[in-house]
Amino acid sequence: MDSCGRSQRRVLPESASRAQQTLPPRLSRVNGWSKPLHGYQAVSWAMFVTLALAMFGIFIPMLPGMWKNIVYGVSGGMLLFHVIVYLVCVSIDPGEDNVRRKKIYSEPVPTFDRSKHLHVIEDLYCCLCRVTVSEKAKHCRACNKCIAGFDHHCKWLNNCIGSRNYWWFFSSLTSALAWLLCVVSILLYIVIQHHVDPRVLRTDPHYQNITSQDTWLLFLPYFHLKAKTPVFVTIAVLVLVLDLISLLMIGQLFIFHLYLMSNGMSTYNYLNRSRRHSS
């Protein structure tokens, strides 16, 4: 028997990285909106807001004729779907059923004492949450609670990903990737068309009063912000680079999770296997 009052017939490793030196929060976090918010979370918001403003305010209004309305509808629908699944994924409490039933979030969680316990979870019992947990549960250091079907703690969502929100996470990943591919297609068309025949990008009625071919109108139809060609091209290139960086990051994560699903693995299992092989 151990000091938790449970036998050690089955021992589950704790989810926290041993190299991580930061102390866990005193109170368990509920979801991705619980403090403290993570810097990566703010970065992801800033990147998507920037891309959305640039696309819907600058570049889509430049598309000719009916294509403008079609792209507004398709791109807007894709972005709206992504925002919905993202918000659901962040808002879900991924905690174990017994943890959520106990409603311990207002109570300070005890500090894990390695002199008393070998592992946080021993024989399917968490010494910190003080509840019985399922076989695939792990105690997340960042959230300071046991997560059902633990996969990983996502800093970009500021929430743990487990069995309760994994498919929302994957849907968020897939929808973000699809929207970014849509964005890069639009940007490449505009950049190429600007070099081939820029007049195609100037079909909006507001250009009737613009005599200089070196002047572009941004944020149509509500604001008629004028910009010279070098400024317009610079904005297009910067937004394209930002989109490609986002596409690369999310794309490799999407492929990684496809690999995990095809092999019936979780991120946690994969990292543990990699550590064993490296040692």
From TrEMBL:
This is Palmitoyltransferase. The keyword Transmembrane applies. It is a multi-pass membrane protein. Residues 122-273 form the Palmitoyltransferase DHHC domain. Its EC number is 2.3.1.225. It is found in: Membrane. Belongs to the DHHC palmitoyltransferase family. Its main location: membrane. The chain crosses the membrane at residues 42-64, 70-92, 166-192, 231-260. The DHHC domain is required for palmitoyltransferase activity. GO terms for molecular function: protein-cysteine S-palmitoyltransferase activity. The gene is LOC102435147. GO terms for biological process: protein targeting to membrane. It comes from Myotis lucifugus (Little brown bat). It comes from the Eukaryota. It catalyses: L-cysteinyl-[protein] + hexadecanoyl-CoA = S-hexadecanoyl-L-cysteinyl-[protein] + CoA. It is an enzyme of class 2 (transferase). PANTHER family: PALMITOYLTRANSFERASE ZDHHC11-RELATED, ZINC FINGER DHHC DOMAIN CONTAINING PROTEIN. Keywords: Acyltransferase, Membrane, Transferase, Transmembrane, Transmembrane helix. Residues 1-23 are annotated as: Disordered. One of its GO terms (cellular component) is Golgi apparatus.
